[in-house]
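so my prof wants the structure for this chain in the tokens format not the other one, which i didnt know existed until like an hour ago. anyway here's the sequence
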Amino acid sequence: MVPTSALPRSPGHPFYAALNKLLAEAKFDAYVEGLCEPLYREGGRPSIPPGVYFRMLFIGYFEGIDSQRGIAWRCSDSLSLRSFLGLKPTESTPDHSSLTIIRQRLPKELIEQVFSFVLTMAFEKKLLKGKSIGVDATTLEANAAMKSIVRREGGGTWKAYLTQLAKEAGIEDPTDDQLRQFDRKRKGKKTSNDDWQSPSDPDARITKMKDGTTGFAYKAEHAVDLDTEIVVAADVKPADQADGETVKDTVVDAQGNLNDATKQECRITEVVADKGYHKTETLVWLGDRGIRTYVAPRRDTRKRRWDDKPEGWQEAHRENQRRTGRDKGKQLQRKRAERVERSFAHVCTTGGARRTWVRGIVEVSKRYLVTVMAHNLGVILRTLIGVGKPREWASMRGFLATCAALWLAILADLVAAGHRVAELASDFADQLLRPRWHFSTSPEAASSTAC
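here's what i got, hopefully its the right format
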């Protein structure tokens, strides 16, 4: 028998303590428990509180862990994270299989409601304006391998397809090495999404990845408030859908999330995007809804024809081109390139969302949306306490320690030179405004002072 007083305890990480305080002020746990209550039944084994489930996924973002197994192991290994989850010293942390069961139980609509609740928290902190929206997309690596692709019709494998082509080319009973050489040298090689799919994840699409390779992926699209860097909409779509078409759904989702978060009519007035989103039909669609577009135009190799296009298309195209050429349009494009890309860097690169370990577009969307929630919470905390991730807290503490050491070193040198304490502060403040260290002292003191 070991008394609980003898068990190891942790004072908790200051960053996670600040995050818990923010969630407690907004009554986050009570809100998500009210939403999830109809999905749980009375009796049976005690379930994991919804607040603990969301906190564990938040930890995946803040610690840069992409898999649920890694999150479960990290939570069980760290006393400070156990304190963040609100677990007693004698309680065990949830298993990764429990996270899977809860994710499958919660519908996507419920996750979207929690996402809107986090936007409400940002609005109450005056971090949500929703006037100028930047839109961009990136690819997410799916949990599917190219070597296992099969035909959409018939389910034939890639090896069987190559064997048939090799026999037609005159190679009887080809070996695996001969098939690889034949596949490497043959002309007109294509792998179309219309013909091939992954047997383990049919929703994934074949596309070109960020590193130049070809693989199965999804497309994640962000709509970011360019004034505050809050992500107001994030959804996962098939990777083969064009940006000019998916932006419509993203703008509609962003408008609905803003209305739900602010509890009032909050109209988007400007949409900024790169040239991948330049489609005249989309420009007209946005203009009909009172939204000014700042979409970078594509470089046309030949003169465009407008006599076969509907009325208003040419005017929408030219108005967008004029707006992007002005100083305001260039400034908004710089903001988009900086802040929207930064959201992808935080969520996908350092947040662990670039590689997904779940399958199906709905499950991937739910998992990704929770990661974007954590990103928005990090933006709020960066405004309140100056840091948005635990790593930033450690680097800031090191910076403050360096400044304090520099302060003490300067004070020690000046006191040793015989200066009064009152002159110390004024001299040091004066030196901050100069490009070099220079002390106006007597020749005797100057000779004995080295700085």
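also thought this was worth mentioning. Residues 435-451 have pLDDT under 50 and may be disordered.
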